[in-house]
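Now for today's protein:

——
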Amino acid sequence: MPPVFTRLASRSWFWFGVAFLLFGIHVFTSRFHTQVYDANGYWQLAQDLYQQNNFSLLNFRSGLRGCLFPLLYVPVVALDQAGIFFAETLIKLLGVLLAAGLTAGLVPALWQRVSGQRVGAGRRALFIGVVFLLWRDYFNYTLTDFPALAGLGGALYLLHGRPTAGRLLLAGALAAFVVNIRPIYLVALPFLVLLGSVAVSRATTQPWHKTTGRFLLAFTAGFLLTSGPQWLINYRNFGVNRPLVIGIDFQDPGMVEAGDLYLLQMNAGFSMQKYETGIAADYPIPQVRYQDPAGTQLLQQNFNHKIDSYGEYLQVVAQHPADMVALNGRHLFNGLDVLYPTPYLYRVYTNTAVLAWINYTLLFLAGTVLLVRGQRLSRLALLTALPLLIPAFTAIPLPMECRYMLPLHWLLLAGACFGWPAAWTWRGLAGRRLALGLTYGAFVTACFVLSAHTQALLAEAPKLITP
């Protein structure tokens, strides 16, 4: 490799440019040019905040969504209404910047900071490439999944750095942003605080109680400052005195009566093991549901189609532990079974075998790395993984969408691309090739069988792996 290219390839900005070009060419030439469903809902909320050249925070009247993500798009609305830029152009540009920042910047940097190992040029290129193959069309849309991942990753990166007041304040602000735009990440907050207190105490020679107190003060200040707009909206518009998203659609009487969105979704998770959203001409409705007859039967036998509390859910677990492990195991697999690179399916009945094989291969590589090197992980590395894993695991009982498993899936992709030891070459594995080959074949075959079983339960008509 020429020395000039070697020097370039060691620079993060070089790989940012590569990722920006790769995602940019694709996103700006893709067939997706309008915001639909959830993405359109967030865009409409941004338009509510900025109406007729006037901005007002109190125009935000959704109790179900947080205000911070729509706030980010208020400048886009203003530029669009002024006729300076088309909104879709700016939305795509922001998506491309996010994709490049995550794949070429934040994720490799966080891996290096936590592991202490440098991420080489080939591994960076591989990570950018596999994310592009598996997730590329998500960056056309105003969805919260990747911004939340970026915010959480940014907070983790800051907590591993020098514990200045500014860094800790910003980490708290990012945590508030993440919890506001994806409320399920609230379950990660205690683990983020635990990581911060441990990381800060390790970085100084002062007593633990002093460093923890200063950390909590700065982190909480950043969290509350960023939560201020949501707190004001909750108090003024809904009469609720709290800084967190309320999580209720006040225009939906059923949701107001139920009062717990997560419990409603848990009920749906018994009868629906996977869910996609379609804009497809080859499927009659937008709701692409993969049914679960066993889960439906389990709920019918015990609670007549519905559980009314978390205690009743635990009752089902206690009475049918094997069935519940199987049900949630199906959900976990389906969340990692990325068959389409888009949140809104352009075609449902299409060949997904190649993308699935690439994904299964990467999951196998990640699993191999975890099994062989997992016992050597430091306590700090494990604490860093928890805020990423807990929100994903919390989503397992729900009707599964692949984006719910985004933190876990990207952690596995990073493990496959960055964690594979340099010594594990074809020659270096001479004595283990047969065992690895047989294990790999069995793993990929099992994945295809499980995926085929799920796709055969598509509500309107079964889908084949290679239709």
